[in-house]
Automatic annotation (TrEMBL):
PANTHER family: LEXA REPRESSOR, LEXA REPRESSOR-RELATED. Its EC number is 3.4.21.88. It catalyses: Hydrolysis of Ala-|-Gly bond in repressor LexA. This is LexA repressor. Belongs to the peptidase S24 family. The lineage of its organism: Bacteria, Pseudomonadati, Pseudomonadota, Gammaproteobacteria, Salinisphaerales. The record marks A98, G99 as: Cleavage. InterPro entries: LexA, LexA-like, LexA/Signal_pep-like_sf, LexA_DNA-bd_dom, LexA_repressor, Peptidase_S24_LexA, Peptidase_S24_S26A/B/C, WH-like_DNA-bd_sf. The gene is lexA. The active site is at S133 (for autocatalytic cleavage activity), K170 (for autocatalytic cleavage activity). Residues 92-201 form the Peptidase S24/S26A/S26B/S26C domain. Represses a number of genes involved in the response to DNA damage (SOS response), including recA and lexA. In the presence of single-stranded DNA, RecA interacts with LexA causing an autocatalytic cleavage which disrupts the DNA-binding part of LexA, leading to derepression of the SOS regulon and eventually DNA repair. One of its GO terms (molecular function) is serine-type endopeptidase activity. Residues 1-65 form the LexA repressor DNA-binding domain.
Length: 215
């Protein structure tokens, strides 16, 4: 990666910090607003420069299609084939049975090793994504979602939640009245409205990033 100017480093740091805080990269408009750029187009110009210098990858037309690049110069990814039979690496969790702990032995499909710099915040396990409700933030069906175990979640963060007998990945919002909304990032999917007096909502962890499997 080529050396960044101070302004370029600010853009890179903001993308990294947003990934840490919310589990998804920022939009061009969010970058422009946070860093005082005149428009989203100005932010896009900085993103193109970062991509040219090898700091990020702009491989998507989605508004949040930004990926950090690891120290080797490659997009962050994992090789799921080499580690299936070892006890090393992060557990990859598949479908979770109703009412059972997410890290129950029977839910672990395999374990994989990933580079230390894939996630800015280390993940405790990987969850296989099922469905397309979060495609707007680059979380696609079949992706491996890095999850950090946590006891609290803040508005705007993406987390893994257990709601009744279901486990879902959504963006969290809580109103002043205590009502909780789990927001989908795909207009084809409705948000989930949670009634704190009737629904049992449990935070399983926070999303810290996504990797694509190499088969």
């Amino acid at each position: 990666m080529e050396k960044l100017t101070p302004k370029q480093q600010r853009v890179y740091d903001f993308i990294r910090d947003t990934l840490i805080d919310t589990g998804a990269p920022p939009t061009r408009a969010e970058i422009a607003q946070a860093l005082g750029f005149a428009s989203a187009n100005a932010a896009q110009a900085h993103l193109r420069t970062l991509a040219r210098k090898g700091a990020i990858e702009l491989g998507s037309r989605r508004s949040r299609g930004i990926r950090l690049v690891n120290n080797s110069g490659e997009p962050a990814s994992v090789d799921t084939a080499a580690n299936d039979d070892t006890d090393d690496g992060l557990a990859v969790i598949g479908r979770v049975a109703a009412g059972e702990p997410i890290l129950a032995v029977e839910h672990i499909e395999r374990r994989v090793r990933i580079a230390d710099d894939v996630f800015a915040t280390p993940a405790d396990y990987l969850l296989t994504v099922r469905g397309d409700s979060m495609t707007g933030v680059g979380i696609l069906d079949g992706d491996l979602l890095g999850v950090k175990t946590a006891s609290e979640v803040h508005n705007g963060q993406i987390g893994v939640f257990r709601l009744g007998e279901d486990v879902t990945v959504k963006r969290f919002f809580k109103s002043d009245t205590g009502a909780v909304r789990l927001q989908a990032e795909n207009p084809a999917h409705a948000d989930i409205q949670v009634d704190p007096e009737q629904d049992e909502l449990v935070l399983e962890g926070l999303a810290v990033g996504v990797v694509r499997s190499i088969h």
